[in-house]
Amino acid sequence: MTEIEHHPQRRIWAFLGYAALVIALPVALMGLMPANEYKAWGGDGIDCDGPGLVFFFAGLGLVLYGAGAFVNGRHFRKPFKLVVACACLLICVALGVNLVAAIKEQRLNDAVPEMGS
């Protein structure tokens, strides 16, 4: 087998990896929802549900797209893989920013006496 030929199993794994990244886009979008819906709508109320869903989806999205950035970033000399790695990194940055905002919102909720259990 020459250097140019590709192993069929590699193609299948590559396809499954890219498919997983595409299928995980709704998870990433859920991770980008606001931590406090009332503040997102312009109010100043306390969201009693808290940012738990944001923690879950943003954390899951960070793991999935962080792995995608790592796996594709190892082959950065190939243009397509570089684009995929950069897209994964951008999604990770957006999820990270929203996760930090959710952590701040959780701390604000913990400081409100009405939120105590």
Topology:
Blueprint: H1 8-23, H2 25-31, H3 37-40, H4 52-73, H5 79-111
Helix pairs in contact: 2-4, 4-5
What does this protein structure show overall?
Keywords: Membrane, Transmembrane, Transmembrane helix. The chain crosses the membrane at residues 12-33, 53-71, 83-103. The protein is mostly helical. The chain has helices at 8-23, 25-31, 37-40, 52-73, 79-111. It has a domain at 52-110. The protein is built from five helices and no strands. The N and C termini lie far apart (66 Å).
Characteristics:
117 residues, mainly alpha, 0% strand, elongated, transmembrane, membrane, transmembrane helix
Provide a concise account of the structure shown.
The protein is mainly alpha-helical and 117 residues long. The chain has 5 helices and no strands. Helix 2 (25-31) crosses helix 4 (52-73).
- Kindly state the mean pLDDT as a whole number? 84
Strand content: under 5%
| Share of helical residues | over 70%
What is the succession of H and E elements?
Answer: HHHHH
Q: Tell me the number of helical segments per DSSP (H or I, 4 or more residues long).
A: 5
Keywords: Membrane, Transmembrane, Transmembrane helix
Transmembrane segments: 12-33, 53-71, 83-103
